[in-house]
Specification:
This protein has 326 residues and is α+β, with helices and mostly antiparallel strands. The protein is built from 9 helices and 16 strands. The longest helix is centred in the C-terminal third of the chain and has 20 residues, at 228-247.
Length: 326
């Protein structure tokens, strides 16, 4: 066969307990475990076609051919896949997302989860969920959490074989919603990969790591028992800890804008009025506001009233990465 292709879709995810810092940056073995939820309705679709006539890999993102560092990153990932499968052909990769780049949603997670599934199938491999999660991790750490469905935990592990993600609970286990307050669409000045490399030179990272198992246990239990009060306390604590590490790294990273703080204050005010919600912030200025589904419409309206909020996207718990017919 001259060209072999497969297509897969995957959702991005929002981390409740964050991944920040690696023990091994090459293998993306994280300093701590992390917990997240896949975001339904937000989708990246990737098609991988290995083609013996190609002289180099090609990346087409949302219809445009992309050269440079993004292509190099995809090529390095395909090299891992080629080594696993024994295939030597180059590939054409099409990747399309239905959510805007720069909307504060980790696009690399959905992209590499979909790429791992489509790429492995195109290369003739039938991987288990665990093997796929390990493979996706090599492209982007958080991508390993977009392979299984629903509420997901990535166990840090000790080596390549033991560092992978698995579901804690399916999407319909708990009806909570992520309302994403978009305050900026500008590309971030320091990407996650560079940021992870700075984590260990913050004096606070050791304390963050030391308490991670405790926060993971509290978050896991809160999800399993649908205990929103325990959940919101540990989610905000963990996000604040990660940003404290970012701000005290050398050089320091400050991802927040004035509107970021305005949204955080609005969430605290909502809580004071009995509207149960909490915030979490990734490596960017946009704020993910989590709340029970019954409150999502009101929370989203309130977020749109905050000065500087351009848009509020909402997402329920999403399913696993899956293959689709062309
Ligand atoms: C702040 O998975 O994007 O979103 O492995 O370098 O691609 P790379 O990093 P990435 O880091 C995610 C950082 C985070 C927290 C999280 O999602 O856990």
């Amino acid at each position: 066969m001259f060209s072999i292709a497969a297509t897969a879709i995957a959702h991005p995810n929002i981390a409740f307990i964050k991944y920040w810092g690696n023990r091994d940056p090459l293998l993306r073995l994280p300093s701590t475990g992390s917990i997240s939820m896949n975001l339904d309705g937000l989708i990246t679709r990737a098609t991988v076609a290995f083609d013996r006539s190609l002289e180099q890999d090609i990346l087409i993102q949302d219809g445009n051919e992309v050269p440079g560092p993004p292509l190099e990153r995809v090529s390095q990932f395909l090299d891992v896949l080629r080594a696993m499968s024994g295939l030597s052909s180059r590939a054409r990769v099409h990747s399309e997302s239905n959510f805007p780049a720069g909307s504060g949603i980790a696009s690399s997670a959905a992209a590499f989860a979909a790429l791992a599934l489509a790429g492995s199938r195109a290369a003739g491999l039938e991987l288990t969920e665990r093997e796929l999660s390990r493979l996706a991790r090599r492209g982007s750490g958080s991508a390993c959490r977009s392979v299984p469905g629903g509420f997901v935990e990535w166990r840090a592990g000790e080596d390549d074989a033991s560092s992978y993600a698995a579901s804690i609970a399916p999407p319909d286990h708990w009806d909570i919603v992520d309302c994403i307050a978009v305050v900026s669409r500008a590309p971030k000045s320091t990407g996650s990969t560079e940021g992870h490399a700075l984590a260990d030179n913050s004096p606070l990272q050791a304390a963050r790591i030391a308490g991670a198992d405790r926060r993971l246990a509290i978050c896991r239990r809160a999800i399993l028992e649908r205990d929103f009060q325990a959940f919101r306390e540990v989610v905000e604590l963990d996000s604040n800890l990660m940003h404290a590490v970012m701000m005290t790294s050398q050089p320091p990273l400050l991802y927040w804008l004035p509107a970021t703080i305005a949204v955080v204050r609005a969430v605290i005010a909502m809580r004071g009025e009995g509207l149960d919600a909490c915030y979490t912030i990734d490596a960017g200025p946009n704020v993910h506001v989590l709340c029970p589904a019954s409150l999502a419409a009101e929370v989203a309206c309130r977020l749109l009233e905050v000065e500087g909020v351009e848009e509020a996207l909402t997402a329920r718990p999403g399913g696993p990465a899956r293959l689709v017919e062309e």
